């Protein structure tokens, strides 16, 4: 029982961590939060479904295409809406509200295209289940864990080892100083939003086979990712990963040992608890408090 | 009346203000000068409750203020203006002054909600007082205009009356002459003396040396977070250390 | 001066009162049935709810995406007291309102420390928790997902004409109270916090206390609206506490224009009428909210009331110019206003 819960918690926690990462990246780059982030997950799931199941492309290719499409959507979102509003010097709160509007538009657009029923994401691997050290789970679930951990590691490398990642980090820290060092901050913010969207779309593609694909998939899971980001310390990349995994574990264990009735409540309760009691999160990131 | 005793402010290892003790004499203009980055505004922010001193005391008429929140310090009798103008932009000039009076008002929430006689009388009284204060700085004709519509120099004046509106014992003025033209500076000189006549003590940070030497009664010089010299304007002007600090500083 | 003002406005007030009293009779006569009257009653209730949100968001600058939870809390408390204890309207409505207010104040205590995006998420979480709690309550005392059907008691029954005047009285009192509060030290404190939190603190405003007051007043009004709603509609389900309803309130507020009485009224009337008009397309209701929100944010930041005010100002300015009565003072003020 313990082992199964542990692996399940890690699997879902890995996905939450990916989503949390997206929120933290956006916060670092623009000091904003995007309510549309969850819908990037939905978008990713539907894109994956389209490429893999409808167009019958190989899984790996579908994966790349989904990533690329979401990347473009992210750039468009930042350039077309967020930057446009920032240039009009709209209050940040209105920009956050605009992301809510976009979130509804995406949900309804997917509903118009794919209908309201939950669609099944076809099996990716030939063997349905896999047994590793006595734990049996869906092969997809294991793949999900591997992919999310790998993505986190790749992102870490990208942000710390590449010239571009360093530029992005410096642009987020001090845009003026970065600009004077010859970094194109406008481009780097755009790419940060794009990366956040692309990572979320991968999370959607990973969740698809496990949960099925429906229009509000992302908004539910997206908020859990947000909770994970807060638990870890909002705006901190590593905090987001750790926070997401912790949230996944807590949720799974509470559901397994105690009650599944309030499974969706746990994330909200933890979110409220951290916001009110320890807003700086585990990694002590000082982003949240006002006067 | 207002004094700081060995105040040190430490931002994660960076010492912005180091063991500074100053005494502000009642009904006098005390000035705080020093090169950029000397810690003047940091000390101001500490007195007015934006920062908590790492160690040391801030005392107003025997009352300890260190670590109290901004609104409590305002209620204790210290008003302030800001280096970067911090008005309530969308509120009218008059309303800005009315907000400044907040800590002296008696009407409760229920008075406000039910428009009791107490509230109506108080409102009438403070509206009159606010107009008086605006006349004092010749801003009354703009009373109903949004604060954002004033010229830069007038915004500075509005900040000063907004501070005076709380009937403070001491007002802290952070670079009041910044952005003012020569005529406005001359008016400011007169205004500062009028504020003293009102019975309000002034502590001022300013870069304009002519103004400072003209108006202040006593000067403290800060450099790199430490007190470099103190004395009356004549003494400070002749102090070789001060001259060296200014020539060697980044100004 | 106050009396002079009232005298000047007296014809307007009398005219408005006559219109508001005649309107339901006219509508019933034209429509031939009670349905439009019901919509008018709902509009009145939403005006109270959105006024509450306006105090919080429009005046004190705090965002809430969980306001529907206060609406539902008022409704459920009131409704449950009705079905379990058969209590009359004049007891259940205050009870529902007070509980919503208390919970609002309690939530505001820690929430007043949060920056806006986190406040918005905390309120989303609060809304969702309320939803799950009502959906699957301990022992099922909230009748869970089925919602509750309230028994009609009291003097109003199902006569929507009576309801209209009953609710109209509430709206008038609420709007008078709101105006009085805004034009007081408390209202000025709210606005100063919205405009510049740090300066408000420096000017002697107890920021946290005033944020909590704004939250409590806001929850009071929205809770009151909910408590009235459940007796009018006689049914409430957990769904009403979901984010969708909160966003409806926000859309109404932003569409009409924040920080004004007229904006709230215009926003509620326009959106509610629009929602009735697109009832056949209910599936895409949220799309309408989304598009409307986006349009308002991008093109009409002051809402339709703010937009109309701007137009009126421009017309007056043009007229003044033509008359050559443009005094020096006026010029200065206008120049600054555009900056």
Oligomer: heterotrimer
> What's the rounded overall pLDDT mean of chain C?
89
The CA-CA distance between the termini of chain B, in Å, is 32 Å
**CATH fold name of the largest domain in chain C:** ABC transporter involved in vitamin B12 uptake, BtuC
Strand/helix succession of chain C: HHHHHEHHHHEHHHHH
Average residue pLDDT of chain B: 92
Largest sheet, spatial ordering of strands of chain C? 1-2
Beta content of chain C comes to under 5%
Q: How many H/I helices of chain C?
A: 14
**From the alpha-carbon coordinates, what is the Rg of chain B to the nearest angstrom?**
19 Å
Structural class of chain C: mainly alpha
| Proportion of beta-strand residues of chain B | 15-25%
Nearest-angstrom radius of gyration of chain C?
21 Å
Secondary-structure class of chain B: alpha/beta
Q: How much helix, percentage-wise, in residues of chain C?
A: over 70%
Order of strands, main sheet of chain B, comes to 6-7-8-3-9-10
- CATH architecture of the largest domain in chain C, please? Orthogonal Bundle
Q: What's the short version?
A:
By secondary structure, chain A is mostly helical.
Summarize the SSE layout with pairings:
The complex is a heterotrimer of chains A (291), B (251) and C (339).
Chain A: H1 2-30, H2 37-54, H3 59-87, H4 92-114, E1 129-132, E2 135-138, H5 139-161, H6 163-173, H7 175-180, H8 185-211, H9 217-232, H10 237-257, H11 263-277
Antiparallel strand pairs in A: 1-2
Chain B: E1 2-11, E2 14-24, E3 29-33, H1 40-47, E4 55-60, E5 63-64, H2 70-76, E6 78-80, H3 93-100, H4 109-114, H5 117-136, H6 152-164, E7 170-174, H7 182-197, E8 201-205, H8 209-215, E9 218-223, E10 226-231, H9 233-238, H10 240-248
Parallel strand pairs in B: 3-8, 3-9, 6-7, 7-8
Antiparallel strand pairs in B: 1-2, 1-4, 4-5, 9-10
Helix pairs in contact in B: 3-6
Chain C: H1 2-31, H2 35-59, H3 67-85, H4 89-111, H5 116-135, E1 148-149, H6 160-182, H7 185-195, H8 197-202, H9 207-233, E2 235-236, H10 243-256, H11 261-277, H12 285-299, H13 303-323, H14 328-338
């Amino acid at each position: 029982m313990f082992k199964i819960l542990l692996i399940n918690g890690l699997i879902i926690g890995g996905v939450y961590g990916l989503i949390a990462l997206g929120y933290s990246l956006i916060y670092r780059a623009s000091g904003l939060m995007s309510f549309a982030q969850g819908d990037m997950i939905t978008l990713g799931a539907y894109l994956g479904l389209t490429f893999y199941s409808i167009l019958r492309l190989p899984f790996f290719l579908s994966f790349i295409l989904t990533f690329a499409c979401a990347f473009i959507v992210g750039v468009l979102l930042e350039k077309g809406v967020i930057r446009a509003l920032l240039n009009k010097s709209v209050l940040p709160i209105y920009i956050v509200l605009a992301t809510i509007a976009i979130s509804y538009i995406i949900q309804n657009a997917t509903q118009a295209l794919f209908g309201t029923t939950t669609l099944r994401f076809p099996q990716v691997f030939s063997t349905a289940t896999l047994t590793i050290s006595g734990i049996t789970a869906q092969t997809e679930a294991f793949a999900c864990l591997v992919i999310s951990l790998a993505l986190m590691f790749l992102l870490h490398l990208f942000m710390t080892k590449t010239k571009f990642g360093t530029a992005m980090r410096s642009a987020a820290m001090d845009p003026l100083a970065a600009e004077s060092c010859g970094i194109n901050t406008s481009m780097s913010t755009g790419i940060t939003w794009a990366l956040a969207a692309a990572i979320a779309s991968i999370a959607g593609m990973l969740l698809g086979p496990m949960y099925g694909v429906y229009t509000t998939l992302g908004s539910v899971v997206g908020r859990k990712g947000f909770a994970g980001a807060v638990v870890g310390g909002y705006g901190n990349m590593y905090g987001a990963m750790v926070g997401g995994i912790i949230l996944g574990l807590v949720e799974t264990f509470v559901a397994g040992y105690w009650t599944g009735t309030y499974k969706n409540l746990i994330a909200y309760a933890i979110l409220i608890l951290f916001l009110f009691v320890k807003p700086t999160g585990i990694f002590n990131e000082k982003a949240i408090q006002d006067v | 009346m207002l004094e700081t005793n060995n105040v040190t402010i430490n931002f994660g290892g960076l010492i912005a203000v180091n063991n500074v003790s100053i005494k502000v004499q009642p009904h006098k203009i005390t000035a705080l000068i020093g090169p950029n980055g000397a810690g003047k505004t940091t000390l101001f922010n500490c007195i007015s409750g934006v920062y908590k001193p790492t160690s040391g005391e801030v005392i107003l008429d025997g009352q300890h203020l260190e670590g109290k929140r901004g609104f409590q310090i305002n209620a204790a009798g210290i008003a302030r203006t800001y280096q970067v103008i911090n008005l309530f932009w969308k509120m009218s000039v008059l309303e800005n002054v009315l907000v400044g009076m907040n800590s002296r008002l008696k009407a409760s929430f229920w008075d406000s909600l039910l428009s009791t006689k107490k509230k109506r009388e108080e409102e009438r009284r403070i509206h009159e007082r606010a107009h008086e204060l605006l006349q004092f700085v010749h801003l009354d004709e703009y009373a109903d205009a949004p604060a954002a519509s004033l010229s830069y120099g007038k915004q500075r004046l509005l900040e000063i009356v907004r501070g005076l509106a709380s009937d403070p014992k001491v007002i802290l003025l952070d670079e009041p002459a910044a952005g003012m033209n020569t005529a406005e500076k001359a008016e400011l000189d007169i205004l500062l003396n009028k504020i003293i006549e009102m019975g309000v003590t002034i502590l001022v940070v300013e870069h304009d040396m002519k103004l400072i030497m003209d108006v202040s009664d006593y000067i403290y010089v800060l450099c790199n977070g430490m007190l470099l010299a103190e004395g009356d304007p004549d003494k400070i002007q002749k102090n070789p250390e001060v001259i060296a600090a200014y020539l060697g500083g980044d100004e | 001066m106050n009396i002079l003002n009232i005298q000047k406005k007296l014809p307007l007030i009398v005219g408005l009162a006559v219109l508001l009293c005649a309107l339901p009779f006219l509508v019933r006569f034209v429509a031939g049935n009670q349905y439009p009257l019901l919509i008018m009653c709902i509009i009145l209730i939403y005006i109270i709810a959105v006024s509450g949100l306006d105090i919080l968001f429009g005046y004190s600058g705090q965002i809430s995406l969980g306001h529907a939870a206060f609406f539902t809390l008022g409704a459920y408390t009131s409704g449950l007291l009705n079905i379990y204890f058969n209590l009359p309207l004049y007891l259940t409505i205050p009870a529902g309102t007070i509980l919503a207010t208390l919970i609002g104040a309690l939530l505001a205590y820690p929430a007043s420390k949060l920056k806006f995006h986190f406040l918005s998420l905390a309120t989303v979480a609060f809304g969702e928790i309320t939803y799950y709690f009502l959906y699957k309550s301990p022992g099922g005392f909230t009748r869970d997902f089925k919602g509750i059907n309230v028994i009609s008691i009291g003097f109003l029954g199902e006569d929507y004409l009576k309801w209209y005047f009953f609710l109209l009285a509430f709206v008038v009192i609420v709007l008078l109270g709101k105006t009085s509060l805004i034009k007081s030290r408390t209202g000025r404190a709210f606005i100063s916090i919205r405009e510049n939190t740090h300066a408000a603190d420096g000017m002697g405003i107890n920021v946290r206390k005033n944020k909590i007051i704004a939250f409590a007043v806001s929850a009071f009004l929205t809770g009151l609206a909910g408590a009235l709603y459940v007796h009018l509609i006689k049914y409430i389900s957990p769904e009403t506490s979901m984010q969708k309803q909160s966003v409806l309130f926000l859309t109404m507020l932003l569409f009409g224009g924040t920080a004004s009485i007229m904006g709230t009224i215009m926003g509620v009337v326009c959106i509610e009428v629009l929602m009735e008009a697109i009832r056949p397309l209910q599936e895409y209701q949220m799309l309408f909210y989304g598009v409307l929100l986006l349009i308002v944010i991008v093109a009409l930041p002051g809402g339709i009331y703010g937009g109309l005010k701007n137009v009126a100002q421009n017309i007056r300015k043009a007229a003044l110019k033509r008359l050559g009565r443009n005094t020096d003072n006026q010029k200065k003020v206008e120049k600054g206003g555009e900056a």
